[in-house]
């Protein structure tokens, strides 16, 4: 349906004016928006004073201009376009603007070329990020039905979202998304074809984190390797017939943006760093540090003069006299250009936005001796690919479009720094108030960049209705977007009929990229065979040998050991990049004699890439403290537990459950035993898996039978043995759950000592504790309650908010947190997460190493746990528990109670300041 919206854009209050959109890309009246801005401001200028505690001689404030300034006012898209600066021959034009969309943060095209827009309508509506977690954001879908280049027809696909983290098309009329401070990814589907989702299904859980909206996972992204990735999260996931599976990866250190290049390597985009975060090698091999991966001068942006100097870092970050940014401080929305309608020298180049500098940067990745160094293409000219003198230009995402051009998402916003870093009295807050940037909200533009040498491709993709043969042909398309979409559609359909055609394309097509996509399509439809991989590993093109190794890893993981000798042989390949890839694959697959083979390779091939990778495989570097963007490292003890558990699993459990835990095929569509990877029961309460290992399980599971018939009891094994194997299947088989200790096993063993026969599933689930879901009839109170961050909203009658709970001030003796249940329940465990956080207002020192990030701990130093049936008479279960950073579990001894209280036992010593008590992801387990 064609959308005819009226403006409703935050503080501008345009609804009252009844202004409608002209979807040709402009406002119906350019002057009206100026009038509205002025109507919202009592004064045309703002008098600004230096904060009382500011040092005018410090780097932050020295040289600041505090004179009265007229407010920054938005321009129409046509006026803004005049202020863009592009290289000769390039043009930029709007394809979708406000009022149809507001505050866009990401765009993604589905396989029919329809454009989904992530609209972050609650982002920074004032300098305190007030109401940032209100359900006012949405995901819209747009089409250019008359093929004139403008997206004039749209619908609200999903509405009333709380700061959504991403949008990913997942089928013809379906998307995946999740909200801030939530843990679940949902699939939204339009079942009746009206352009609006009417069905919501859980896709996966344990995916999110809470905290500042800039620090949460974002950009769910489908890689060429058929896995799904996101920023922040150090794992990848994939849908299989037996459920969602996961594999751990390196830490991507990213915030806002993921892209893959022409050969499928992922490129993650930093945020506060202002530069790409991880790109050196595919992330599933872990992290490798290369100190020279950024060319000299790379961190210097060359934006156009914007005059206003609104930099969070203060005057030290301002280039004088033009008021532009002198060191990158924010980056977003990367893309490797894969299209066919811009000059060929742009293909394979990396583009990303720096919204603080108001630039889009073009990067040339140079590979030498197996290592990649990034170069700013326009550095010598002291310029950038795209820049603007409009202070409101905020490029936050890029995309290669179906028409072969490059799209740029411009939030066109006054403030581009979350409220945690704009406190009253700060330098940035002073500049915001001086130019009244907080008044410019609710806008947004999406731009198309073209070149005089070629017009855009007007052919519309219709891949959802294309035949498998047509999709295979699209793998040879000159526009990489079409190749990606065709592969995704073939993999989604699991089209076995095209395997012969794909094999032929993979082995002999003249187009390198068609061959690469054919290889990964075969991998995605389970059509890749070891004979094909072996042949590809001997291909004359080194890039194909690399792809064969990467795709062949799936076969080795599934038990095909015949390929291992090929991986070892390729360590001696004469091509630098092939040798480096062979080292990575040997490490990932844990091929025998790894260290010996790596050392031999380093002796025979002394190039820089082989040396760096080899040394870091043998002696991994100490993990960097990446603050909220890193992932917690396993302890030495935890790694040992997983190693012991994996050994047992491979020797015993894999015979029925499969090498990857996905279940072994027994023929006829049956499995020998249930899949453990991605299994919600396995990742749920640990007692479920402990009971099964101790006492066995037979019969149907959730009405599904398995040919193996039963799981034999293992109660003769020691507690440590059981704890190791259960910990491995909960944490090492693409699952993400807590470890299990021998003490837990001993407790369950004692509790179930009278279990003399194998469990039946219905009996088992009744005896295992389950999560008691938070509901509105819980009464939660606390001695102190505050926002867990700027932008959070504290409900007046509860100590629980969307993002968790905090004392808000330093810990003091007798502070408490209490839950009153509507009726008595038998309590088993109380779980909460106390995450470390960056001190508010802290900004990175470019001269300091990453390990210098100051982190504030928020766990309770010492606390007691008590229960009560009447709220008057209390039983103390623990008198002096010590909290820990991250996840905390309190075992409640299966006591029946109506009240549960946690109370601090001491005030931390003087000098230990900035220690609030924070609890997030609170869960209660028990028996109803």
TrEMBL record:
<dbReference type="InterPro" id="IPR011041">
    <property type="entry name" value="Quinoprot_gluc/sorb_DH_b-prop"/>
</dbReference>
<keyword id="KW-0479">Metal-binding</keyword>
<dbReference type="GO" id="GO:0009055">
    <property type="term" value="F:electron transfer activity"/>
</dbReference>
<dbReference type="Pfam" id="PF00034">
    <property type="entry name" value="Cytochrom_C"/>
</dbReference>
<dbReference type="InterPro" id="IPR008979">
    <property type="entry name" value="Galactose-bd-like_sf"/>
</dbReference>
<dbReference type="GO" id="GO:0046872">
    <property type="term" value="F:metal ion binding"/>
</dbReference>
<dbReference type="InterPro" id="IPR011989">
    <property type="entry name" value="ARM-like"/>
</dbReference>
<dbReference type="GO" id="GO:0020037">
    <property type="term" value="F:heme binding"/>
</dbReference>
<keyword id="KW-0408">Iron</keyword>
<dbReference type="InterPro" id="IPR036909">
    <property type="entry name" value="Cyt_c-like_dom_sf"/>
</dbReference>
<dbReference type="InterPro" id="IPR055557">
    <property type="entry name" value="DUF7133"/>
</dbReference>
<dbReference type="InterPro" id="IPR011042">
    <property type="entry name" value="6-blade_b-propeller_TolB-like"/>
</dbReference>
<dbReference type="InterPro" id="IPR016024">
    <property type="entry name" value="ARM-type_fold"/>
</dbReference>
<dbReference type="InterPro" id="IPR009056">
    <property type="entry name" value="Cyt_c-like_dom"/>
</dbReference>
<keyword id="KW-0349">Heme</keyword>
<feature type="domain" description="Cytochrome c">
    <location>
        <begin position="640"/>
        <end position="733"/>
    </location>
</feature>
<protein>
    <submittedName>
        <fullName>Sorbosone dehydrogenase</fullName>
    </submittedName>
</protein>
<dbReference type="Pfam" id="PF23500">
    <property type="entry name" value="DUF7133"/>
</dbReference>
């Amino acid at each position: 349906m064609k959308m005819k919206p009226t403006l409703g854009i935050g503080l501008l209050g345009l609804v009252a004016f009844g202004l409608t959109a002209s979807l040709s890309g402009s406002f119906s009246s350019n002057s009206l928006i100026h009038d509205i801005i002025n109507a919202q401001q009592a004064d045309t200028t703002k008098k600004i004073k230096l904060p009382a505690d500011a040092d005018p001689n410090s780097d932050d404030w020295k040289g600041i201009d505090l004179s009265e300034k007229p407010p920054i006012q938005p321009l129409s898209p046509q006026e803004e376009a005049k202020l863009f600066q592009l290289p000769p021959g390039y043009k930029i034009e709007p394809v979708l603007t406000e009022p149809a969309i507001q505050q866009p943060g990401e765009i993604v095209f589905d396989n029919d070329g329809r454009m989904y827009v992530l609209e972050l309508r609650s982002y920074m509506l004032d300098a305190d990020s007030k109401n940032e977690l209100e359900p006012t954001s949405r995901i819209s879908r747009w089409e250019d039905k008359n093929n004139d280049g403008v997206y004039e027809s749209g619908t609200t696909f999903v509405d009333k979202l709380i700061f959504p983290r991403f949008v990913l098309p997942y089928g013809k009329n379906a998307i995946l998304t999740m909200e801030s401070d939530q843990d679940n990814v949902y699939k939204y589907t339009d079942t009746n074809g009206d352009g609006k989702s009417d069905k919501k299904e859980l896709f996966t859980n344990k995916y999110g984190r809470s905290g500042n909206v800039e620090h949460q996972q974002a950009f769910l992204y489908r890689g060429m390797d058929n896995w799904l990735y996101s920023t922040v999260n150090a794992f990848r996931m994939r849908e299989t017939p037996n459920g969602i599976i996961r594999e751990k990866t390196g830490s991507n250190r990213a915030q806002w943006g993921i892209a893959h290049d022409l050969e499928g390597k992922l490129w993650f985009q930093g945020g506060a760093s202002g530069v790409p975060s991880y790109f050196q090698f595919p992330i599933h091999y872990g992290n490798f540090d290369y100190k020279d991966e950024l060319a000299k001068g790379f961190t210097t942006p060359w934006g156009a003069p914007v005059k206003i100097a609104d930099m969070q870092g203060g005057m030290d970050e301002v280039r004088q006299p033009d008021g532009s940014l002198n060191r990158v401080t924010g980056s977003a929305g990367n893309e490797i250009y894969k299209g066919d309608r811009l000059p060929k020298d742009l293909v394979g180049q990396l583009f990303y936005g720096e919204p603080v500098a108001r630039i889009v940067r073009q990067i040339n990745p140079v590979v030498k001796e197996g290592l990649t160094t990034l170069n700013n293409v326009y550095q010598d000219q002291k310029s950038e690919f795209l820049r603007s003198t409009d202070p409101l230009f905020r490029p936050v995402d890029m995309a290669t479009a179906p028409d072969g051009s490059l799209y740029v998402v411009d939030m066109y916003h006054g403030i581009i720094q979350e409220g945690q870093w704009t406190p009253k009295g700060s330098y940035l807050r002073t500049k915001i108030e001086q130019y009244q940037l907080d008044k410019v909200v609710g806008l947004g533009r999406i731009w198309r960049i073209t070149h005089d040498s070629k017009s855009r491709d007007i052919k519309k993709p219709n891949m959802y209705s294309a035949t498998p043969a047509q999709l295979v042909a699209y793998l040879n398309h000159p526009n990489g977007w079409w190749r990606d979409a065709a592969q995704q559609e073939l993999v989604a359909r699991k089209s076995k009929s095209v395997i012969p055609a794909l094999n032929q394309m993979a082995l002999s097509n003249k187009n390198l990229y068609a061959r690469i996509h054919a290889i990964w399509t075969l991998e995605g439809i389970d059509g890749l065979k070891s004979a094909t991989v072996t042949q590809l590993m001997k291909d004359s093109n080194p890039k194909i040998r690399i792809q064969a190794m990467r795709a062949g890893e799936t076969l080795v993981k599934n038990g095909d050991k015949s390929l291992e000798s090929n991986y070892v042989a390729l360590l001696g390949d004469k091509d630098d990049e092939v040798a480096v890839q062979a080292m990575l694959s040997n490490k990932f697959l844990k091929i025998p004699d790894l260290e010996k083979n790596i050392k031999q390779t380093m002796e025979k091939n002394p190039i820089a890439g082989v040396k760096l990778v080899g040394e870091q495989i043998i002696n991994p570097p100490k993990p960097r403290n990446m603050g909220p963007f890193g992932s917690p490292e396993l302890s030495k003890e935890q790694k040992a537990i997983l190693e012991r558990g994996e050994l047992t699993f491979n020797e015993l459990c894999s015979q029925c459950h499969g090498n990857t835990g996905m279940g072994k095929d027994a023929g006829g569509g049956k499995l020998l035993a249930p899949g453990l990877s991605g299994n919600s029961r396995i990742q749920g309460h640990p007692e479920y898996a402990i009971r099964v290992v101790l006492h066995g399980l037979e019969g149907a599971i959730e009405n599904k039978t398995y040919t193996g018939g039963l799981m034999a009891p293992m109660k003769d094994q020691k507690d440590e043995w059981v704890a190791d194997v259960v910990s491995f299947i909960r944490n090492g088989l693409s699952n993400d759950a807590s470890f299990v200790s021998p003490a837990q096993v001993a407790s369950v063993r004692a509790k179930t000592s009278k279990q003399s026969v194998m469990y039946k599933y219905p009996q088992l689930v009744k005896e295992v504790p389950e999560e008691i879901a938070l509901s509105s009839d819980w009464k939660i109170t606390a001695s102190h309650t505050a926002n867990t961050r700027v932008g959070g909203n504290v409900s007046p009658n509860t100590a629980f908010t969307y993002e968790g709970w905090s004392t808000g001030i330093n810990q003091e003796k007798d502070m408490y947190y209490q839950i009153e249940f509507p009726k008595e329940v038998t309590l088993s465990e109380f779980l909460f997460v106390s995450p470390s956080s960056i001190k508010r207002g802290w900004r990175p020192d470019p001269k300091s190493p990453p390990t210098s990030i100051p982190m504030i701990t928020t766990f309770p130093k010492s606390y007691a746990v008590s229960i009560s049936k009447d709220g008057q008479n209390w039983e103390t279960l623990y008198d002096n528990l010590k909290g820990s950073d991250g996840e905390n579990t309190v075992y409640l001894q299966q006591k029946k109670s109506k009240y549960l209280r946690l109370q601090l036992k001491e005030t931390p010593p003087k000098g230990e300041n900035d220690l609030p008590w924070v609890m997030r992801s609170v869960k209660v387990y028990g028996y109803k």
